[in-house]
Amino acid sequence: MKHAFVPPADLEPLVRHPKATGPGQHIGLHHSTCFGCGDDTPLGLHLKVIAGDDLSVTAQMPVVDWMQGGPGVIHGGVLSAAFDEVTGTAPLLIGAPVVTVHLEVDFAKPIPLGSTLHFEARILGKQGRKIYLAASAHLGDPEQIVASAHALFVTIDVQKHFAEHYDKRVIL
Ligand SMILES: CCCCCCCC(=O)SCCNC(=O)CCNC(=O)[C@H](O)C(C)(C)COP(=O)(O)OP(=O)(O)OC[C@H]1O[C@@H](n2cnc3c(N)ncnc32)[C@H](O)[C@@H]1OP(=O)(O)O
């Protein structure tokens, strides 16, 4: 699949955090009203991201009617949000809370309503506070990739980063 993203050649190798969620286990929510993973949002992706046994994660997402963009197929922004969530959760495996600074998505095939997307994301490496990731999605056959993504996240101090906006939050 063609893409424009080129990670640096000198990425630092990484290891799992000793307290990282175990392989096959659900990685905890960012927060309960997160659009990507929260349980308490009426409209949200409700993604359950599962830790792999290395520096990877997986998730599944049923493609339901409200996600429609073109007739009968998923909206590209919804798919991008799912990639954002899945890639943004993976750095918790190395104990790093992050926010997205760059996300690119390659759309290879139309993704029909009624299908189930299977995501896989993996950490490629780190450079200072920057964490590089790659992800892909298929509809049940891992050999048939329907979309892929590359992302750059930056580690943050969660308390400081969200301090200004936390009091303006809307809990649905
Ligand atoms: C708790 C986690 C919830 C996760 C939810 C799911 C993921 C999300 O959707 S997060 C929401 C969307 N993202 C955001 O809101 C982030 C908005 N951006 C910011 O707040 C700031 O840019 C922030 C804090 C990330 C970085 O700012 P700051 O701390 O000043 O660092 P800064 O020096 O600018 O950038 C750090 C490094 O990243 C690089 N960088 C920053 N943005 C980019 C970019 N778009 N492309 C390439 N590199 C970038 C910088 O060049 C710098 O590199 P180096 O260390 O080599 O000099």
Automatic annotation (TrEMBL):
<keyword id="KW-0809">Transit peptide</keyword>
<dbReference type="InterPro" id="IPR052365">
    <property type="entry name" value="THEM4/THEM5_acyl-CoA_thioest"/>
</dbReference>
<keyword id="KW-0443">Lipid metabolism</keyword>
<comment type="similarity">
    <text>Belongs to the THEM4/THEM5 thioesterase family.</text>
</comment>
<dbReference type="GO" id="GO:0006631">
    <property type="term" value="P:fatty acid metabolic process"/>
</dbReference>
<keyword id="KW-0963">Cytoplasm</keyword>
<keyword id="KW-1003">Cell membrane</keyword>
<keyword id="KW-0472">Membrane</keyword>
<feature type="domain" description="Thioesterase">
    <location>
        <begin position="72"/>
        <end position="142"/>
    </location>
</feature>
<dbReference type="Pfam" id="PF03061">
    <property type="entry name" value="4HBT"/>
</dbReference>
<keyword id="KW-0378">Hydrolase</keyword>
<keyword id="KW-0276">Fatty acid metabolism</keyword>
<dbReference type="InterPro" id="IPR006683">
    <property type="entry name" value="Thioestr_dom"/>
</dbReference>
<dbReference type="InterPro" id="IPR029069">
    <property type="entry name" value="HotDog_dom_sf"/>
</dbReference>
<keyword id="KW-0053">Apoptosis</keyword>
<dbReference type="GO" id="GO:0016787">
    <property type="term" value="F:hydrolase activity"/>
</dbReference>
<keyword id="KW-0966">Cell projection</keyword>
<dbReference type="GO" id="GO:0016020">
    <property type="term" value="C:membrane"/>
</dbReference>
<dbReference type="GO" id="GO:0005737">
    <property type="term" value="C:cytoplasm"/>
</dbReference>
<protein>
    <recommendedName>
        <fullName>Acyl-coenzyme A thioesterase THEM4</fullName>
        <ecNumber>3.1.2.2</ecNumber>
    </recommendedName>
</protein>
